[in-house]
TrEMBL record:
One Pfam family named in its UniProt record: PHP
Record-level Gene Ontology MF annotations: 5'-3' DNA exonuclease activity; 5'-3' RNA exonuclease activity
Region of interest called Disordered, as start-end residue ranges on this chain: 1-28
PROSITE patterns registered for this protein in UniProt: TAT
Residue spans of biased composition, Basic and acidic residues class: 19-28
Taxonomic superkingdom: Bacteria
Annotated SMART domains: POLIIIAc
Organism whose genome encodes this protein: Planotetraspora kaengkrachanensis
Basic residues: compositionally biased ranges: 1-18
Family annotation (SUPFAM superfamilies): PHP domain-like
InterPro entries reported for this sequence: PHP_dom, PHP_domain, Pol/His_phosphatase_N, Pol/histidinol_Pase-like, TAT_signal
UniProt-recorded name of the protein: Histidinol-phosphatase
Start and end residues of each Polymerase/histidinol phosphatase N-terminal domain: 106-181
Length: 582
């Protein structure tokens, strides 16, 4: 698998930042914030902390969280600390080629024959994902009565077996949670002896379908928070080493209100860490008769009684394949980032039934009785009405992990070291915000500087170096720098815009092989800001929904029934914060 990084899987990579990567993953940062202050206050030396506090601080360092400042208050709640200081002894000589991290591609949203609308075996997905270059993946069969009763247990031996067969793609067990009062989300845990029992108890206790708690009521919204609290407690009590939640296709049906998203993240900011910036089902808009002729991402809904009424009509569509919450500059995602909230984006396949595949669901299946369909069989002809791609075939979530392991991937996701792309638009992305004399921080991090310090953002992009699965080598046309002011907590939890975020710089890309580098001069920093990146093949664009002065050339709204995903490619990065202290 030569896909942008070389790592003889399983060996340790000698690039520790002056601390070990032993990944005990106790993750006691799910506890209350009361005793956290000395842990994150880097003016207090380790020698003055209790053994428990030292352990917690080391875990924070491993997870890259001391720079990012993951607290309920967000990045603004972090004591002033030069995040770059700890990197000074970490010279480039002992870095991996990719900025000191293994950038591991993955997918956290995949369905098997254990989903009521699925078909494939676990091994089918794992072998395809491996062949298409994924290093990690999460099996997320739908929460349902049958799944909660028997499916969680039945899928586990298949996952364990796949881990043994395909050793260089890490396979997590998770589930797709019917979030009470909202849409769907990925919930997954670190592998271990309690992965099945924890997921099963979670699903039986907190799944909206199982508990008949799907409608948008305050009681159901509270049940969702209780589910996140359960996961945090499972980690705190060391029942599982780690657990994460990410909201899936958040704008598709208008069910995830802004206040619910804020509520999840604020209740458990180390468990509820983000959302799909781009949904799966990316083949669904391919025109008939060659494709399904539907909404890209199956974003083809209209408001229902449970939809949040404040969302505009455009929010039910994708833009360049990305969810409206992510694709709108100055929109909902930016409104969270402008609060200083750590909230990350991903991109996934949501693979159920694959476009042009010739498999059919196993005959004589009884899903309700068995918790799974019989193994798929050859159907004799490609099926053109299915809207999904195999994991890794089109959508990729790249995470900057300290090593090749389950814990390192979960740490990287939590830390926000993530960029996403469609169709292999680029092969690699390295971003650093730094001053003239520091190495600075990468995606998901917070660079603390003295007020008035000049800051620069360095961008290095490895251009596409081989054909994608449409047999074209994509060409990156433009890279946009999006910058926003951090204005602090909002008074209205249903806020979904922020006025001080816009595209501040665009770089034209005038080559199509090798690497390109760009420098964005932030200038003297006098107020807290964040910066994120977006890139495109330039084939479809339109002014952003908040106007051309905010986003002159953003992704265009996808046309129902006429959205070829290969002719509209984008990448997005997660943000870096730049925070001055007086």
């Amino acid at each position: 698998m030569s896909h942008g990084h070389s790592h003889p899987h399983g060996h340790t990579h000698g690039h520790s930042h002056g601390h070990s990567h032993d990944h005990d993953h106790t993750h006691e940062h799910a506890v209350d914030q009361g005793d956290m202050a000395p842990v994150v206050d880097m003016s207090i030396p380790d020698s003055e902390l209790s053994p428990g506090q030292v352990s917690r601080r080391q875990m924070f360092r491993r997870a890259g969280l001391l720079g990012a400042g993951i607290t309920a208050a967000g990045v603004l709640g972090t004591p002033g600390q030069a995040a770059a200081d700890s990197d000074k002894a970490w010279g480039r000589s002992n870095c991996e080629p990719r900025d000191g991290y293994l950038w591991l591609a993955g997918d956290h949203h995949i369905h098997t024959q254990h989903s009521s609308d699925g078909m494939y075996r676990v091994i089918d997905h794992v072998q395809h994902a491996n062949a298409y270059g994924l290093d990690w993946m999460v099996i997320t069969d739908h929460g349902s009565v049958a799944h909660a009763k028997i499916g969680v247990e039945k899928v586990n031996p298949d996952i364990v077996a796949a881990r043994k067969v395909v050793k260089d793609t890490l396979v997590f067990q998770g589930l797709e949670w019917n979030i009470p009062g909202a849409e769907h989300g990925t919930v997954f845990v670190a592998p271990g002896r309690n992965e099945v029992s924890t997921l099963k108890e979670f699903e039986n206790s907190f799944d909206g379908s199982v508990k008949n708690a799907t409608s948008s009521t305050p009681q159901n919204e509270a049940l969702a928070i209780a589910g996140l609290n359960f996961l945090a407690n499972a980690v705190k009590k060391r029942r599982v080493d780690d657990a994460l939640f990410l909201a899936n296709h958040p704008a598709r049906k208008g069910l995830d209100s802004p206040h619910e998203i804020r509520g999840w993240r604020d209740a458990q900011p180390t468990i509820a860490v983000g959302m799909e910036g781009a949904p799966g089902h990316q083949a669904a808009g391919i025109p008939k008769p060659a494709g399904p002729g539907g909404g890209r991402g199956f974003y083809d809904s209209t408001p229902s009684a449970d939809s949040w009424p404040g969302y505009p009509a455009e929010s039910y569509k994708t833009f360049g394949g990305f969810d409206w919450m992510t694709s709108t500059v100055g929109g909902l995602w930016d409104s969270l980032l402008a609060e200083g909230k750590t909230w990350w984006i991903t991109a996934n396949s949501d693979a159920h039934t694959v476009y042009q595949d010739s498999s059919l669901r196993g005959p004589n299946s009884d899903f309700e009785a068995n918790g799974r369909y019989n193994d798929p069989v050859y159907g004799g002809a490609p099926v053109l009405t299915q809207g999904d791609f195999w994991p890794g075939y089109y959508s990729r979530t790249h995470v900057g992990a300290a090593d090749f392991g389950y814990g390192a991937i979960m740490d990287a996701i939590r830390a926000g070291r993530i960029w996403v792309d469609h169709g292999g638009l680029i092969s690699g992305l390295i971003v650093r915000a730094h001053t003239s004399d520091t190495r600075g921080v990468t995606l998901g991090g917070a660079l603390h500087v003295r007020q008035g310090t000049k800051v620069e953002v360095s961008i290095e992009i490895t251009l596409a170096n081989r054909p994608n699965w449409a047999n074209e080598i994509p060409t990156l046309a433009r890279v946009d720098v999006i910058q926003g002011e951090v204005t602090g907590p909002v008074s209205d939890k249903d806020t979904f815009t922020t006025p001080k975020t816009k595209v501040v710089k665009s770089f034209e890309v005038n080559k199509n092989t090798g690497t390109v580098t760009f420098k964005y001069n932030v200038g003297a920093v006098d107020r807290p800001i964040y910066v994120r990146l977006r890139g495109t093949d330039g084939k479809r664009s339109a002014p952003g929904l908040l106007g051309a002065s905010v986003d002159p050339h953003g992704p265009a709204i996808d046309v129902f029934g006429d959205a070829d995903p290969w002719k509209d490619l984008w990448f997005y990065s997660n943000p870096i914060w730049i925070l001055p202290r007086r």
